[in-house]
Write a structure and sequence with these properties.
Order of helices and strands: EHEHEEEHHEEHEHEHEEH
Helix content: 25-40%
Bound molecules: zinc ion
Strand content: 15-25%
Number of domains: 1
Oligomer: single chain
Radius of gyration: 16 Å
Length: about 230
């Protein structure tokens, strides 16, 4: 497979912090319009936008990489990617069981809309999805891998919810084959300082929470990128 280009970190109306009009169908369509070969829908702690995203991807002729952005117990965000939607949904069910039943008010936090391939609202999620699950970074990575998935630290150099902000750098108890960075120049400095590892593939994605941001940044999946295994 040749190198693929795409936005591998996009939220939808399922995430309370994302715009309600950013349905999975819209997100996938905007990525296609921007010329992406592949798009990953990665909502907080839930896979429930993925069935509609998959239907849209098949209709529009773009690859979908099914994903979830897990908020691990340490409050570190970990992108977990899977080969198919059903596996991501099963992983999402395990995360939901591991989410605290925090008193959640949509008026305060934002709605968590489940929508179908026609962009109709079919449900709302009850537990607040942006909370931290009880699984640690290491446990989440292990569960993801046990289901054939690939865990990727999100925005590893960012000022919040990141390896750098929480741990000060790369973890001691778990390794990853690649990671996402938010600020490439800062990430380069952290790599030179030995706080993040060099020599691994890096992703740079939009982390879009609104329609305008979808595909505003894209990653290149070159030869040997581990994520290509999930797209074959
Ligand atoms: Zn994040
Ligand atoms: Zn995100």
């Amino acid at each position: 497979m040749n190198a693929l280009r795409g936005d591998l970190h996009v939220h939808t109306c399922l995430s309370p912090c994302a715009d309600d009009d950013l349905t999975p169908v819209t997100a996938v369509g905007l990525a296609k319009l921007a010329g992406a070969d592949v798009v990953a829908v990665t909502d907080h702690n839930s896979a429930r936008s993925l069935p509609a995203a998959k239907a849209a991807a098949d209709a529009y002729g773009i690859l979908l990489l099914p994903g979830i952005e897990v908020n691990c117990a340490e409050e570190i965000h970990l992108l977990c990617y899977f080969a198919d939607v059903d596996t991501a949904l099963r992983f999402g069910d395990a995360l939901y069981d591991a989410l605290p039943a925090f008193p959640y008010d949509p008026a305060v936090w934002g709605r968590q809309l489940v929508t179908d391939e026609n962009e109709e609202i079919t449900g709302e999620v009850e537990k607040l999805l942006t909370g931290a699950v009880t699984l640690t970074l290491s446990e989440t990575a292990q569960l993801c891998r046990s289901m054939g998935g690939i865990p990727v630290p999100a925005h590893a150099d960012a000022d919040s919810y990141s390896l750098f902000s929480v741990l000060g750098g790369w973890p001691m108890d778990v390794d990853f084959d690649l990671y996402e960075v938010k600020f490439p120049e800062r990430a380069e400095k952290l790599i030179r300082a030995g706080l993040l590892p060099g020599g691994k593939p890096l992703l740079t994605n939009s982390d879009a929470h609104c329609a305008d941001a979808v595909a505003s940044r894209m990653s290149e999946l070159g030869e040997g990128n581990p994520l290509l295994r999930l797209l074959r």
